[in-house]
Design brief:
about 0% strand; mainly alpha; elongated; 4 domains; about 400 residues
Amino acid sequence: MSFESILRCHQRINGLSRSLLGRRAFDELHVALPDPASPEPGFIRATSWLYCLYFEAGRVSLTFLRRLGEVHSLIDRAEIDEHVEVVRCLRTELHHNLGFVDSDQAARAAAEGWRRRVCGTAIPRDNKQWSKCYVGLLKEANRFLSAIDEVVRRIEADGDKAGQHREEWLRRLDRSWPAAAFDPVIDEAKHHLGRQALNTVEFRQRHVDRWRAQLDLMEDGFNFAEEATRLVEKSLLDGDSFVLPITGRDIVNALKIKSGPRIGTLLEQARRRFAAQPCTREELLAHLERSRSDSDFDSLVEAAKVRFGRDDLNTIRFRQCYVDHWREQLDLMEDDVDFDYHATRLIEKALTEDVLLPITSQDVLDSLQIKPGRRVGALLVAARKRFESEPCTKEALLEYLAAVP
């Protein structure tokens, strides 16, 4: 078994698909071909070539034709699935530094088990053993691609009856987006969002399967660049890819404050600010220098408590309940806004949301001498509106309700 037989089969499938669909089944492969005179390097190159064919250049066509071949009993699904998975595991083992997590151990076990079955050992050490691995891999690949060749010939032989299969195959190819097609979209989004330090390829590898799944849900004829940009920018802004241009150490050095819980609070403020308005490291630190401490809010809460007659309220507990929300709202405003004014508005809004009326429904019944019913609910709503606009005593509020028509 020679690698030339694999190449001939590859060429036949491409030629038939060009005749049937007007385009090739497989994209171009830019992988060095194996040299049979050097069994070990040859095996490694053959593995790489097959992986690129199965999972990249031929991914769409092979997936479609495998399933169609199963329907026509031209493909043994269990055998082919095992071969494709072995190629994936061999390539993973050969090109990655595998650790001891479950997925790594599974790939290693599958690769070693296949070699042991083919050449008698999990770790070949001479050319004879490597040659058996090389030939064994090519035999399996040849059976797979020959079966795919038969599926394509079946489509050709069925003529017009296979029109639906041809249309579906072509539709899938037209909606196939090579991983590299996302790279210029990522680069442009990085520039727009100030994320030039991000590694384009690593970022794409992490998200590309999800992007493809989302694009596949769209109607034919959509604008790839526009929709891909939406998906890429969403991923850039999602928490799992969000990286601040500053660290806790930067805050300690720039703001001259001690390490402690305050650093965590400032980092959270920085995260909200950067999400709303991406900026440089220097701009973000300057914004944090203008941020206010908890004590700044406490003084405003105390003043608001006096105005609202809420001396019963615990200032620190009240502030702890709302301060993250207040800071988040203030972070969305321009840097030169009046802190006292806007913080006071937020505090007073929280006070009115948290307000407890000095009267109950029973007080309304007893004072106004009315029967239980919808009227009581309506009066309590009126009491709340009155109390929020003008806090007063229990007696004054009941007196107001007595005048409500």
